[in-house]
Amino acid sequence: MKLLALTLAALLALAAPAAAQKASLPDIEDEVMCVECGTVLSVSSSPLAQQERQFIREQIAAGKTKEQIKAALVAEYGPDVLAEPERKGFNLALWLVPIALVLLAAGAIAVALRRWRAGDRAAEPELPPPLSPEDARRLDAELQR
Amino acid sequence: MRVFWPVTLAAAALVGLLAYGLASKGTDTTLDQAVQRGERPMAPVATLPWLTEDGNGSLADYRGKVVVLNLWASWCEPCREEMPVLQRTHEKIASQGGLVLGIDTQDSSDAAKRFLAESKATFPSLRDRDRSYGREFGATGYPETFLIDRKGRIAAMQRFPVTQEWLDERLPELLAEKA
User: What is the C-alpha to C-alpha distance for residues B39 and B179, in angstroms, rounded to an integer?
Assistant: First the structure.
């Protein structure tokens, strides 16, 4: 048991630096904006995009992790450099509005369904009044012919 | 007609949000119009970090001086081309109570410092990393130059690269004004 725990700990220790070294330009380019052009960095070739790529390459060469590089990009170019906006301030609206819209749509559908069902019940034809004993007898007689 | 008020409220909130988003991203031409009318609107002021030294500074630190405020970035080719004109102007007007103040915008600070050293530019520059200060001037690109009088008001502006002629035509009058 002790041996297993030690092996696991050794594997984790080896895996952690390996994961930290995974930062690569193509991986980061998809999550970063060209702040001047307003497009994702991976599809931009403007002079500023080239400068941002060079900045990322230098950070990778310095051994920084992906998160550290993204933090350095924010320090250099501001929070708009991140393709996925930070979940605070006005940017929260980007996350909350779609959720609110889905909830609202679900509520509206539920209300509409309830009304539709109630409308269906209201539209059912009323049954005629029960037959009098005399009429019932005559109906039976007619049906037996 | 029966109104389903939560839907109405949500729709109004959504429209308000969209309007705010559009208004906050749009180009502001208020300053352009005021300067075209011959007015001198107050120049926006913000405290920003210095590019080449520690600490913060502001346009307000130069009240009483004529300031050639220039928005630039090291990756912007027209900005690089006009740098010698700005440096010459800075040296020329220093003795008359004037200076060039650069606003290095959306730029890698290391690349910006390297560029200043290469071009031997000695005028001070503040860092506007996300163009939030530039937007207060209605900036849409680079370079842009604003002539600020001794009272901190915008006397002239150029949304494109400046030439020596453009500066020579406007600066002497401003430098001659009293604070």
Answer: 17
